[in-house]
Amino acid sequence: MERWQMKRAGILNFWYYDEEEFLFEEGRLILRGTNGSGKSVTMQSFIPLVLDGDKRPERLDPFGSRDRRLEYYLLGEADQGHTDRTGYLWLEFYHPLKNSYKTIGIGLRARRGVPQLGFWGFLLEDGRRINQDFYLYDYTLWLEQGKKVPLNRKILEDKIASGGQVVQEQTAYRDMVNKSFFGFRENESYRDLLKLLLELRSPKLSKDFKPSSIYEILTKALPPLMEEELSSLSDLLEDMDQITDHLEELQMHLTELGKIEKRYDRYNCFLLFPDIAMPVQMRLRLFP
């Protein structure tokens, strides 16, 4: 396997989770449970949210609803008592050939009555692994008091230091993830990939499963071709046209040469016939 694959996913202080980890097997994960047990919310908390940091409510809901903003998954209902809460969502990737680990994640802070949601994204790329030798909460406080208090952005930035990056803009985070794992030259191509993931997770897809629907989704998700890729293709087609024209010209010449050869053979027969006929007649006279 020559690519990055998801190894672990983690939640800290988000929705009904205090802290939870999910283990992947060769980049795959199955969440099982009855309807309403939280499978969709859990999965949508990672994909596509952790892949691009886009916090719009319609992207968090499989049905495209805007009813619940991201703040709800941090603060809950008004009577739950949360007024200020910081949480983390993260994905760890593993590269089998390089035997190396990288982790991406987002930090979120919601305060009741404050419309602006605090956001920061991070990349950990020096081999440290969350909950093994790197923690998203105050580890010393946890050892002393048993409390897992999530790090704020500034402390996280200090702890990551030169071992990664911390950004505060959603677009900067999305581009950082693309560069670290996917390598699309154009940011638009990465956005198209995320759109495809959103389409494929839609419940409507399972209800209205038609080959034409799948074809349309996959066609829309095709990345645009670069100019240099198109130029090489156009050069190839132009060369093929030239070869075809040359072949047609050679075929025409061959046909005309065939006509000349036929006439020339008849001409030679006409000239050679008297010379051949005389010896034959003499032989017939000598040997009747």
TrEMBL record:
Gene3D superfamilies: P-loop containing nucleotide triphosphate hydrolases. InterPro entries: P-loop_NTPase. It comes from the Bacteria. This is TIGR02680 family protein.
